[in-house]
Amino acid sequence: MLSQNNAPPPPDNPHAGGVIPKVVPPLARPSPHARDLAWRTAFTWLRAGWRDLWTHPLPSLVYGLGVFLVSVAVVWFLFHLEFDYALLPALAGFMVVGPLIAGGLYEKSRRLEAGEPVGLVPMLFVRLRSGRAGVFMGVMLLGLFLLWMRAAVLIYALFFGMVAFPGTEEIVPMLLLTPTGWALLLVGSAVGALFAAFSFAISVFAFPMLLTERTDALSALGISMAMVWNNLGVMIAWGAIVVVLFVLCLLTAGLGLILVFPLLGHATWHCYRTIRSDDAAAREDDRMFIRPA
């Protein structure tokens, strides 16, 4: 027979007397990506990038010249193929693929930090620790760029209808001197800012991560967003610096890219090294598919 035990529960039993214990929420843990950096740190990165630029400056300047010449070629092809309606979205979308193009500049800063010899050839043929994950990330960023281009065309059609593009000579007065143009600029700028903020967050640290760590592209993009979100103040300041310098490049008809693009590439490397510590790089729980070696 089963024994009948009518003894009172022990005093340390939380269920004594039929009382449901209180549910205590878990204590908040600090994010491993948070660094508590002042917004002025962004200018420290800029100074460090300037120092790397002028340490063996020729490869960096040739790299910037190459970016400028490719940009000129793209603009020429847009006009030659009568795709001039895509010029403004393409200029804005340059910031989407910019971190991908700057891979050689990250490599030069990495080599300077490690005391390795620098040169143009290693900058042009970068060897990623993550291997082909870089190709996958490039495809995703190009897909985001094409999505932005399609969104820009749709926004234009919503405001001006399904009409032929009037040409660059007439589009500027239409945008600046008509209420419809003002509305288009407002909506287009808002949508473009969302695309730019999202692409900046997922890509600003992703390529440096693929360069120095063995990881997969999706993890790199996700960790990059987490690093931006947990250091929002200083990253907003850094994003503002990038936008201001890019606008200055546009005002110089792109010539500023020869100097500004290498400067931002080198500075982004120091931004990455400040926020992504060596201990965090060795963690396994924030990767999706590939564990660090």
Automatic annotation (TrEMBL):
<feature type="transmembrane region" description="Helical">
    <location>
        <begin position="61"/>
        <end position="79"/>
    </location>
</feature>
<feature type="transmembrane region" description="Helical">
    <location>
        <begin position="218"/>
        <end position="238"/>
    </location>
</feature>
<dbReference type="InterPro" id="IPR018692">
    <property type="entry name" value="DUF2189"/>
</dbReference>
<keyword id="KW-0812">Transmembrane</keyword>
<feature type="transmembrane region" description="Helical">
    <location>
        <begin position="182"/>
        <end position="206"/>
    </location>
</feature>
<protein>
    <recommendedName>
        <fullName>DUF2189 domain-containing protein</fullName>
    </recommendedName>
</protein>
<keyword id="KW-0472">Membrane</keyword>
<dbReference type="Pfam" id="PF09955">
    <property type="entry name" value="DUF2189"/>
</dbReference>
<feature type="transmembrane region" description="Helical">
    <location>
        <begin position="85"/>
        <end position="106"/>
    </location>
</feature>
<feature type="transmembrane region" description="Helical">
    <location>
        <begin position="133"/>
        <end position="162"/>
    </location>
</feature>
<keyword id="KW-1133">Transmembrane helix</keyword>
<feature type="transmembrane region" description="Helical">
    <location>
        <begin position="244"/>
        <end position="264"/>
    </location>
</feature>
